[in-house]
User: Which sequence fits this backbone?
C-alpha cells in the first residue's frame, strides 16, 4: 500500500509534466535548505533565482505557478524572507495586480471590435515588413502614453482571435466550443499553413511586445519605474522626456530599423509570411461577421468604440489607477451590451488571474533578493566609481540585473541608494546644514535649482548643481538600463512574462527559448545603442 500511495503522489505531483521536470523540482526543494544552512543565504538566494528562471523557461512543460510557488513557499518557510515582507512587496505592487485583474478582463469585452479592426488591417496590408513595423510602432506609441501590460493584452486578444478562426477552419470545427490546443483534428492539407501562420503570429507578437519597451522608456508614464524615478528626481512629463531623449530616441529609431531588417533577412526566426489560404479564411470570416450583424450587434460595436475612446483618454489623462479604469470598462461594456450572466463575465478573468498569482510568487522572489542583499556587491561597486565610467557601469548593471529580476525592483533599489549617496555628498559641502533638506528642495518640481542654491556661500552652489547634474545622468542610466537591455528575457519585462504565460503562447509555440531567440537582435542593437548614447550623448 505505501508503494502504491507513493506512486500515486508522484503521478499527481505537477500533473502531466515530464518526469525529469518533476525530479528537477524535487531536487531543488531538497537542495535549497541544505544550501541555505551550509553555504549561506547569498549562495542559496542566487540558486533560487536560477531555479525560478528555470520554471519560467519550462512554461510550456508546466505553468510556472505550481513549481515556482513551491520554491517560494519553501524559501519563506526556511527563513530566506518573511511572509510580512512578501505581503509588503505585494501591497507595494497592488496597482499592477489591479491592472491585471480588471484591465485584461476589460479588454476581453472589446475583442469583437479589436478583431474586426485588426482583421481589416491584416487583410489589406500584404507586406510583412510593413505590418511588422505597424505592430512595433503601435506598441511603442501606445506604451508611451498607456501601459505596456494593457497594450500587450490587446495584441494577445487580437492574435488569439485570428488563430482560433483559422484553427477552427483547419480542424473542420463548427461548434461553439473549440479546443485550439488540440491539433488532432487538423486536416493534413492545412497543417503546413497552420504552422506557417503560427510563425507569422509569433513574429508579430514579438514585434509588438518589443515595441512596448521602445515606447515605454521614453515617457514618465511609460513604465512603473519611470514614475518612480521621475518622482524621486522631481521631473514632470516634458522634463522626463527631455532628460531621457538622448538615449531613448536613438534606441527607438534603431529598434524600428531592426524590425524591418530581421523581416527582410529572416534573422533569428523572423520572416514568416501569412499564407494566402489563411488570409482568405480571415477575410471570409470577417465578411460573415459583418453580414450577421444585427442592429443590436452594430450598437454593441459602437459602444465598444466609445468605450475604447474613453479608455485611451482616461489612461492618457490618468483619471484613476489603471486597474480602476479597467473595472469601469468592464462595468460599461457588460451593462450597455447586455452581458449579465455570471459565467460569461467570469470567463473574462480566466486569462489574467493565473498570471496575477504567478506575479505574487515573483514578488516573494523579489523580497528574498532584498532581504538577502543579493544585488549589494554590484551596487557597492558601481557607487564606488566616478564620472563617465560610473554612468556606463550603472547602465550595464541595471540592464543585467533587470534581465533576471523585476526591473521595477532594480530601479527602486538603485535610485534609492544613489539618492542617499548624493544626499551625503551634498551634506558635506561647505555651508550646507542638511543634505536631506537641500536634496528635497533641488528635486522639488515647483522650484528652480539655480534659485535654490543662490543663497549658498562661495562656490558651494556651483558644486551642488554639478552634483545634481551628475545625479540626473545617473537617473537616466537607471531608467534606460532597467528598460532597454531587459528585453533580453521574458522575466525582464512584465509584458513579456505576461505574453509567455498567456493562453496564446502554447498554441503558437512561443516558448521561453523562442522569446529569447526572437528578442536577440533587438537586445543586441538596443542595448549597444543605449550604451553608446550613455557614453557619448548623455
Assistant:
Amino acid at each position: 500500500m505505501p508503494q502504491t500511495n507513493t506512486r500515486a503522489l508522484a503521478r499527481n505531483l505537477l500533473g502531466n509534466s515530464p518526469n525529469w521536470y518533476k525530479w528537477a523540482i524535487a531536487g531543488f526543494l531538497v537542495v535549497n535548505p541544505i544550501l541555505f544552512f551550509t553555504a549561506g543565504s547569498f549562495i542559496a538566494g542566487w540558486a533560487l533565482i536560477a531555479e525560478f528562471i528555470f520554471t519560467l523557461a519550462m512554461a510550456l512543460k508546466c505553468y510556472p505557478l505550481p513549481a515556482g510557488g513551491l520554491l517560494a513557499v519553501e524559501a519563506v518557510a526556511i527563513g530566506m524572507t518573511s511572509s510580512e515582507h512578501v505581503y509588503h512587496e505585494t501591497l507595494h505592487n497592488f496597482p499592477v495586480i489591479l491592472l491585471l485583474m480588471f484591465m485584461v478582463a476589460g479588454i476581453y469585452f472589446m475583442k469583437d471590435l479589436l478583431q474586426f479592426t485588426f482583421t481589416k488591417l491584416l487583410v489589406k496590408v500584404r507586406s510583412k515588413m510593413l505590418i511588422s513595423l505597424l505592430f512595433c510602432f503601435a506598441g511603442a506609441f501606445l506604451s508611451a502614453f498607456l501601459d505596456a501590460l494593457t497594450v500587450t493584452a490587446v495584441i494577445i486578444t487580437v492574435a488569439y482571435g485570428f488563430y482560433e478562426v483559422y484553427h477552427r477552419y483547419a480542424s473542420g470545427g463548427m461548434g461553439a466550443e473549440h479546443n485550439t490546443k488540440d491539433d488532432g483534428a487538423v486536416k493534413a492539407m492545412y497543417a503546413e499553413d497552420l504552422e506557417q501562420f503560427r510563425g507569422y503570429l509569433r513574429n508579430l507578437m514579438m514585434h509588438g511586445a518589443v515595441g512596448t519597451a521602445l515606447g515605454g522608456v521614453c515617457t514618465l508614464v511609460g513604465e512603473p519605474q519611470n514614475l518612480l524615478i521621475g518622482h524621486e528626481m522631481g521631473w514632470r512629463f516634458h522634463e522626463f522626456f527631455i532628460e531621457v531623449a538622448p538615449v531613448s530616441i536613438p534606441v527607438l529609431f534603431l529598434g524600428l530599423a531592426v524590425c524591418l531588417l530581421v523581416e527582410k533577412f529572416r534573422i533569428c526566426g523572423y520572416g514568416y509570411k501569412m499564407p494566402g489560404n489563411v488570409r482568405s479564411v480571415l477575410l471570409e470570416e470577417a465578411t460573415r461577421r459583418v453580414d450577421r450583424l444585427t442592429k443590436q450587434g452594430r450598437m454593441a460595436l459602437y459602444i465598444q468604440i466609445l468605450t475604447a475612446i474613453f479608455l485611451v483618454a482616461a489612461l492618457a489623462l490618468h483619471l484613476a489607477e489603471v486597474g480602476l479604469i479597467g473595472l469601469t470598462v468592464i462595468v460599461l461594456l457588460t451593462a450597455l451590451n447586455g452581458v449579465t450572466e455570471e459565467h460569461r463575465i467570469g470567463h473574462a478573468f480566466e486569462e489574467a488571474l493565473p498570471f496575477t498569482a504567478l506575479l505574487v510568487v515573483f514578488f516573494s522572489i523579489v523580497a528574498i533578493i532584498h532581504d538577502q542583499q543579493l544585488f549589494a556587491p554590484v551596487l557597492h561597486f558601481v557607487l564606488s566609481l566616478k564620472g563617465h565610467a560610473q554612468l556606463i557601469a550603472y547602465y550595464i548593471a541595471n540592464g543585467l540585473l533587470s534581465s533576471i529580476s523585476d526591473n521595477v525592483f532594480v530601479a527602486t533599489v538603485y535610485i534609492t541608494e544613489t539618492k542617499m549617496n548624493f544626499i551625503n555628498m551634498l551634506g558635506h559641502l561647505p555651508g550646507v546644514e542638511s543634505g536631506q533638506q537641500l536634496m528635497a528642495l533641488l528635486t522639488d518640481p515647483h522650484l528652480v535649482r539655480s534659485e535654490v542654491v543662490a543663497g549658498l556661500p562661495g562656490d558651494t552652489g556651483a558644486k551642488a548643481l554639478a552634483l545634481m547634474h551628475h545625479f540626473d545622468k545617473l537617473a537616466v542610466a537607471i531608467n534606460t538600463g532597467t528598460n532597454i537591455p531587459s528585453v533580453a528575457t521574458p522575466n525582464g519585462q512584465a509584458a513579456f512574462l505576461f505574453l509567455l504565460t498567456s493562453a496564446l503562447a502554447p498554441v503558437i509555440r512561443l516558448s521561453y527559448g523562442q522569446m529569447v531567440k526572437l528578442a536577440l537582435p533587438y537586445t543586441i542593437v538596443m542595448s549597444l545603442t543605449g550604451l553608446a548614447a550613455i557614453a557619448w550623448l548623455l
User: Anything to note?
Assistant: Residues 97 and 171 are 37 Å apart (CA to CA). Residues 188-216 form the longest helix (29 residues). The mean pLDDT is 87. The radius of gyration is 25 Å.
